[in-house]
Amino acid sequence: MSGPLAGKVCIVTGASRGIGKGIALQLGEAGATVYITGRGLSPSGDVKVGGTLQSTAEEIESRGGKCIPVQCDHGNDEDVNKLFERVKTEQNGRLDVLVNNAYSGVTAIAESVKAGNTFWEEEDGMWDTINKVGLRGHYIAAVHAARLMVPAKQGLIINVSSPGGLMHFATIPYCIGKSGCDRMASECAIDLRKHNIAYVSLWPGAVRTEHVLSFGKGNEDQSADDKASKMMKRMIETGETPEFAGKAVVHLAADPNIMKKSGKIVHTTWVANEHGYSDVDGRHHIDPFSIKYMLNLSGHTWLAGVTPEFIRFPGWMVAAMYHHF
Q1: Most confident of 97-111, 176-190, 219-233
Q2: What single string gives the DSSP state of each residue in 164-221?
Q3: Active-site position among 35, 103, 139, 174
């Protein structure tokens, strides 16, 4: 298959559904050989939303791509080791892109938010539920990926993160985990730079994943006067499709100047604005650092309509708003 990533070998962790699936679909469509991971190839009884590794692989193949689904629990180091050994053997040691997306804490976070729990009211295992497959799993996968990329003197590692790493959001373990993902990218990038390997942290906006849409349906009975509910509803309505993050990953992987972004946080809308593309459904998503986005989210749509998107808060100012000194 031809495409901007033809001949490239990629791994996307946690690709049964959601953002991981969206990224895998776009990588496959761009011509890459895509290894996708998940805890099971077929549906599991403990999963309340749709999506399987096999269905993701079939959709990639239907678009003309090449996909290898691999059952892998990213909380199990032996599973992860076998994954990378398989890629090494089957691809003659080649790995061009690793996308760290696997995550096991979505349901626990949603239940915690719904209950309004403080961190001391959580179960003792909450930290591991959120960060064993997430933060720790990302690091272990990055170690294995680097061992394949360093000899080749090229590669790209991406952590799927969020603004939760910068501000108080959802649960404390979630915020710490996402902050760790961002810091991991900046620190690992230092060691990898001399080997021409880039490491970035990707922030999608609000994404209309299966879990998010399910959560939205479950809260339709909340009061219309509930400001938080109104904001959540607006975020879901205007949210990105999972494949929008996939398009960002494709452009990052094909960017000849990717080393200039290494060690940094990159938002999906910034990549879209840089390369001039829209979401797969044709919608344009607004930069969340822009005044226009803030006005839209707060319900001032008429004012947002006349405010140019380029008027935005610079990154250093956003970081300063949440400084710890």
Answers
A1: 176-190
A2: GGTS--S-HHHHHHHHHHHHHHHHHHHHHHTTTEEEEEEE--SB--HHHHHHHHTTTT
A3: 174
